[in-house]
Structure formats: structure tokens, C-alpha cells
């Protein structure tokens, strides 16, 4: 490309010199005979304007030849960023741009294959987990008929959790395939916390710790109940394992805040707190990354509000605001009646 630019620039200079100098010599020779200075200056001005126009046209053509392949490359990169990995193979004639286009196409194909492998693995893993859960559910249904009432009650509670886990697997599979969930509904965050609280109290009691829930004026939000519960579980699990003291849960407005009395998050860990671990075989460090991904796929947010002590907040869009926005969009796109 560098050589082509040099050669094209030299060509433009040669052409401009030829256009300008050759007529000037002719005009000077003619002026020696006519001795009309006004006519001489007029001809020189005309030639100069003509030379400038010619140079501008040549520069525009050259710029267009260089800009078109770059604009096409930018459009392809934009489509790849939007998730369209079907990048067409097209040659621009400029080696450097063609090399970038080829590298971008190879990278897009590689990412597409990786995502396809992840989707297939997720589908296979979900199928295997669902098969195992079905077998467990059958055994639990038999235990529900046990003569011992305590055993039957415990089997019923575990069976309900099994059904919830099955529903969660379905929701996670949808998120893995599409990047979002289409099962949002109006959710009461207080009910979500209450449904999951009993499961956690036993674990906190085993470690002689407490989990305290405070509810303020809450607003129904638009979210997927299963995903909200999953994010809540991740945050409470994080506070139980990495925090200390009492864990305080505040449900207020359109969000849930979880805080513990531990040492908090180290400054060095904050930038990568919600990132997946670089070691794919690592057993820890995936919870917060998964929680943020689930929140964003469900139209919500998960953020670290305070480092010491660690305070996390998950928030969603108000169901009322979302409904009002949908109505406003629908009315704006509705065609006006003909008069």
C-alpha cells in the first residue's frame, strides 16, 4: 500500500506539472509576439484554475479508491461486532487491506465455531443434567409416599427444588442460545427473596452466622423470576464464602442490595471482579461473572456499590416504566389516519 501511495502521488505530480508547464511555455512564447499583458495574465490564470481542478479530480479519485475498501472493511467489522460472522470474501487490490480483511474473516469464523461448540456443549450438558434430575425426581416422588411424615415432607421440599432447578436449566439454556431471555414478566423482588431465604438460613445457621432481610417500599420490575433468583443465590453464596459476620439484604425500589461485614474487595481485584477467570479449569471465580451476564441478559444491572465492606446491588427496570415506554413506542409508530 505504501508503494502504491508513493507511485500515485508521483503520478499526480507529473500530470500536474505536465498540465501546468506545457501551456505556460506556449503562452510565454505567444506573449513575446503579441505583447498583450492583460491577455497573458488571463491565460495564465485560466491555466492555473484548470490545473487545480485537474489535481482535485485526481486526488478525489485516488481518495475514493483508498476509502472504499476501508469503508467496506469497517462495515464488515461492525457486522462481526453485532454477531454476524458471515463475512464475505472480497479483494480490494491493496495487499495490506486484504490481509486485514482475511484476518478478520478467519477470526470471525473461529469465534463462530467456538460459540457453536459452546452452544452444543451447553445443550448436551443440560440434557444430561435434566436426565439425572428426572431420575432423582422419580425417587423423591416415591419418598413422598413414605409412612414417616417427616421423610415425606423433606422429600416434597427437595422435589420442589428439583423442579425449580429444571426450570432454571431451561432459562440458562435460552440465555446461552440467544443471549437474552424472552420470558420476562412482572416480578415482586420481595417474593423472590422470601422464596430463597429459607434455603439459606440453614446454611448460615450451620456457620453460626445470620442473614437479615429488610424490605422498604418496593416496585414491581420486569424480569425473569428464575434468573433473579439465580443472581440472588450467587450474591448470597459469595457473601457466605468470602465475607463474614451478618449478611444484610435490603429490598427497596427496583433493586436488591446485599452487604456483609467482611474485609471487602481488594483494590487489585475490582477491575476483574466480574470477569471470567483466564484459567478455564478454575473451580472458583465464575459466580459473579455469570451473575452479571444473567442480569444484563435480563435487562438489569449488577454492580459493586462499595468495596469495604463489600456491597453489591442488582437492579431492574420498573415494570410500569417499561409498559409506558412500550405504549409510547407503539403510538409513535402507529400510522396516522387518512383524512
Description:
This protein is an alpha+beta fold and 339 residues long. The chain folds into three domains: 2-84; 121-178; 185-323, Histidine kinase-like ATPase, C-terminal domain (Heat Shock Protein 90, 2-Layer Sandwich), CATH 3.30.565. The chain has helices spanning 2-34, 37-81, 95-143, 149-178, 189-206, 225-242, 287-297, 319-333, and strands spanning 185-187, 211-218, 221-223, 247-253, 255-259, 301-306, 311-315. It has a five-stranded mixed beta sheet. It has a two-stranded antiparallel sheet with strand order 1-3. Strand 6 and strand 7 (311-315) form a beta hairpin. Helix 1 (2-34) runs antiparallel to helix 2, helix 2 runs parallel beside helix 3 (95-143) and helix 6 runs antiparallel to helix 7 (287-297).
SSE blueprint:
Elements (H helix, E strand, L loop, with lengths): L1 H33 L2 H45 L13 H49 L5 H30 L6 E3 L1 H18 L4 E8 L2 E3 L1 H18 L4 E7 L1 E5 L27 H11 L3 E6 L4 E5 L3 H15 L6
Parallel strand pairs: 2-4
Antiparallel strand pairs: 1-3, 4-5, 5-7, 6-7
Major β-sheet strand ordering? 2-4-5-7-6
How many beta strands in the DSSP annotation?
Answer: 7
Give the low-pLDDT segments: none
Count of discrete structural domains: 3
Q: Could you tell me the mean pLDDT?
A: 77
Strand content: 5-15%
Helical content stands at 55-70%
Distance between the termini: 60 Å
